[in-house]
Amino acid sequence: MSQPVSYRVVGNVGVITIDNPPVNAFSHAVRTGLRDAVETATADATGIVLIACAGRTFVAGADISEFGKPPADPWLPEVLDLVEASHKPVVTAVHGTALGGGFELVLASHYRCAVAGARVGLPEVHLGLLPGAGGTQRTPRLAGVEAALDLMLSGKPIRAAEAESLGLIDRVFEDNLEANALAWCEELLAAGEGPRKVSEKTVPTVDTAVFEATRKTLAKRARGQLAPFKIVDCVEEATRADFASGAEFERERFRECLESPQSAAMRHLFFAEREAAKVSDLPKETPVREIRSVGIIGGGTMGGGIAMSCANAGLPVHLLEVDAAALERGFSIIKGNYSTTVSKGRLKAQDAEQRLGLIEGTADYAALADVDVVIEAVFEDPELKKTIFRKLDEVCKPGAILATNTSYQDVDAIAAVTSRPEDCIGLHFFSPANVMRLLEVVRGEKTSGEVLATAIRFAKTIRKVPAVSRVCYGFIGNRMVNPYMREAQKLLLEGAMPETVDAALFDFGMAMGPVAVSDLAGLDIGYKARQALPPEARGDETAFRVVDTLVEAGRLGQKTGAGFYTSDPATRAAAPDPNVAKLIVETSEALGIERRDIEDTEIVERCVFSLVNEGMKILEEGVAQRPGDIDIVYLYGYGFPVFRGGPMFYADAVGLPHVLERVREFHERFNSGEPAALLESLVADGKRLADWAGTDA
Ligand code: T1G
Ligand code: NAD
Questions:
Q1: Cβ(286)–Cβ(453) under 8 Å?
Q2: How far apart (Å, rounded) are the C-alpha atoms in residues 316 and 293?
Q3: Which of 84, 124, 499, 602 is catalytic?
Q4: Looking at residues 457-466, what average pLDDT do you find?
Q5: Phi, then psi, of 436 in degrees rounded to 5
Q6: Measuring CA to CA, which residue among 105, 62, 99 is closest to residue 84?
Q7: Is the dihedral of CA 466, 467, 469, 475 positive or negative?
């Protein structure tokens, strides 16, 4: 087996090459290989050492799959200290992305170069970790405290040119990285340049108030997370301690993060997101069709956002509406969204102009004759959607993909009205579609492998995170949210108030509580969806008695300024409404429900465990392939707290026996739903969900 680290001499330069596909992660073998190569290079006759990587990228960090396993020496900090301690100058040459431990290697070297377009970053915070190999101590020494905090707290990589302007990279070459890096090495040697240790630099002075100010911002932005605050502690320590003590402080904080359940949850999500794009019965070599143009039917809330997502990815869009007035309305939403983004400085005006220019309005189906994919986003009326699919079947070219953005409807029934159900699929975006990253890819009974593979590739092209669902009512996300919302409504009737239910789930980490979410989405959405169901499928309707009363009174939520809460039209701030509190108490009395004090723990468990229980049924039925897919749906579509890993991972973390015991209790006491068979069998077998091998096992 070839070694992941090789060494050769070029002229007077000792060249160390790391080659560990796919992303040169700092596995145990790479750490060992690098240590040995540095020892060789510093002992031979060469004058300078160059470290570079083969393949598509520089080291993209520690090997995340090794975390949680017994640690193996050498530890990365030791290897990087060896690099920095070299008596010969060490140069690193970056291409692709130097991330995490990979960028810490760059910081530990004495001279740093990169090819234009390369990016460097410290994304550890997205894994519930912090840069644990000197990054929190060396970055502020080179770039100052604010830039260092921004790099580590955003976790966003920056381009080589920006890194150069921050002093993190010394040279950026247009191309021919290796040749230019070797020439630069010879130049440094000729100039008699020696080692330059970042650890010997001091952190530029800064107003220490920045640390408290940052912690205050994080209290909102990273609510419930550990790692961001420990990053601030480490950078603050760098301003008052020498490198060795600061590095020791960092190692302690790193260990605390690594051993925390939060990091285990966020590492789970890292791999779950990549797994979610894979379909177990779809061969890797399945052909994928080119998507060069998009048609969208319906320019309302969703159609407009979907058009922006496509234009943002450089795809031309034909947006079809019933008439010019409706088109005007659609474009005013789109223009409004772009100008808001420009006003917040997140997009240049000319880029917004260019993207808007990619969206063409029409009321004529002929404009869709040549597009590669059409996404229907008209009213949630199955008959209207079928009418449109019949029309698309007539006008669209062979090979065009016909997709529906329906939230609940039967994708197979819609596809069946066409002569090409194999080219039909569900593409379920989330509102606002130009912001929300989740895309539920709903494969119909007849959807071909090629169309499914193309849809997943399309999701990545428009920078969405795909999760594949089979057809069922509400697919993965909305099907699970029904029992979650039902429990929230039942808790109101039993004694809680909207603000207490929402506060409990908010403190649990949800981006927003269930009652506030229903006000945001519009109380009529759920009302219409329930009304559209056959009576036998509606379940216990009393649970929704209060919300139905509000809808029938025209209180539809934020869009009417009042729902469960009254909302300030300017700030959208929601305030409890004593009239609603009165309605809730009267409805309890009318239903003969005796109100009681309800603990936050019960509120959280009834809502979250009902999600989990429905998730178990979805896995049993094969609607979702794996528990991680459900976690990705809830992370990117429903604001489930990232540091809890998603509802299914969370269930394993709290222990399935406890979940089962509570689900059983809630069903006996509140008719909250029978425990799922999968939950029962896993507990009976003493297994965790993570050990479950799926329906086709
Ligand atoms: N460890 C293990 N596997 C990794 C990996 C890593 N660091 N990065 C990627 N992979 C796998 C990934 O699972 C996938 O596998 C394949 O590589 C391609 O990845 C001490 C503690 C580099 C920008 O957080 O952001 O350093 O699915 O599909 O879209 O301070 O991968 O094919 O089987 O994502 O082109 C910090 C993580 C680690 C960067 C490429 N580093 N990686 O994106 O490909 S912690 C990170 C990425 C650390 C130190 C600390 C991206 C990428 P498979 P991909 P991509
Ligand atoms: P919307 O009412 O905001 O927009 C629907 C648009 O479709 C309107 O502009 C209307 O003029 C247009 N339309 C109606 N009939 C048409 C026809 N025959 N030809 C062309 N255009 C026509 O609705 P929305 O919220 O954007 O929802 C659209 C679809 O997306 C629905 O199926 C809904 O379930 C689904 N969806 C909605 C959300 C959400 O949060 N709003 C989220 C995901 C999916």
A1: yes
A2: 5
A3: 124
A4: 98
A5: -65, 135
A6: 105
A7: negative
* Residues 13 and 48 sit within 8 Å (Cβ to Cβ): yes
What residue ranges line ligand 2, CB within 6 angstroms? Answer: 297-303, 320-322, 326, 377-380, 384, 388, 405-407, 429-431, 521
pLDDT at 695: 62
Residue 124 catalytic?
A: yes
| Closest CA to ligand 1's atom 15 | 274
Q: What is the pLDDT of residues 23-50, one digit of tens each?
A: 999 999 999 999 999 999 999 999 999 9
Which residue, judged by its Cα, is nearest atom 20 of ligand 2? 321
Is residue 383 exposed (0-12), middle (13-18) or buried (19+ Cβ within 10 Å)?
exposed
Residue identifier of the C-alpha nearest atom 10 of ligand 2? 298
1 has a pLDDT exceeding 60: no
Average pLDDT, the chain: 96
Say how far apart CA 294 and CA 88 lie, in whole Å: 56
Ligand 1 center–CA 323 separation, angstroms: 47
Q: Is the pLDDT of residue 386 over 80?
A: yes
Name the residue at shortest CA distance from atom 54 of ligand 1: 274
Contacts of 696 (CB under 8 A, 6+ apart): 280, 281, 622
Question: Edge-to-edge strands of the sheet including 158-159?
Answer: 97-99, 119-121, 158-159
- Atom of ligand 2 lying closest to residue 329 CA: 9
Which protein residue has the closest C-alpha to ligand 1 atom 53?
274
Catalytic hit among 84, 104, 376, 487: 104
pLDDT for residue 697: 47
- Residue 174: is its pLDDT beyond 70? yes
Q: What is the reported pLDDT for 530?
A: 83
Which residue bears the tokens 């009737």? 493
Return the exposure string of 250-264: e unless at least 16 CB atoms fall within 10 Å of the residue's CB, then b. bbebbeebbebbbbb
Span 653-664, pLDDT tens digits: 999 999 999 999
CA of 477 to the centre of ligand 2 (A): 18
Per-residue pLDDT reduced to its tens digit, 175-200: 999 999 999 999 999 999 999 999 99
Which residue, 441, 386, 391, 440, is CA-closest to 415?
386
Compute, in angstroms, the gap from residue 353 CA to the centroid of ligand 2: 25
CA distances 421 to 63, 417, 446, 447, Å, are: 43, 8, 6, 6
The answer, yes or no, to whether the previous bond of 432 is cis (omega within 30 of 0) is: yes
pTM, full prediction: 0.96
d(CA 388, CA 380): 12
Q: pLDDT tens digits, residue range 465-474?
A: 999 999 999 9
Residue 454, exposed/middle/buried by CB under 10 A (0-12, 13-18, 19+)? buried
- What pLDDT, on a 0 to 100 scale, did the predictor assign at position 71? 87
Q: Which two tokens stand for residue 204?
A: 């530029």
CA 221, chain centre distance (Å)? 15
Q: Give the Å distance between the CA of 114 and the centre of ligand 1.
A: 20
Q: Are 435 and 309 in contact (CB under 8 A)?
A: no
What is the pairing mode between strands 424-429 and 438-443? antiparallel
Quote the ligand 1 centre to 579 CA distance (angstroms).
52
Buried residues in 575-602 as b, exposed as e (16+ CB within 10 A): eebeebeebbeebbeeeeeeeeebeeeb
Cα-Cα end-to-end distance for the chain: 32
Residue 66 annotated to the active site: no
18, 20, 23: which to mutate for ligand 1, most atoms within 8 A of CB?
23
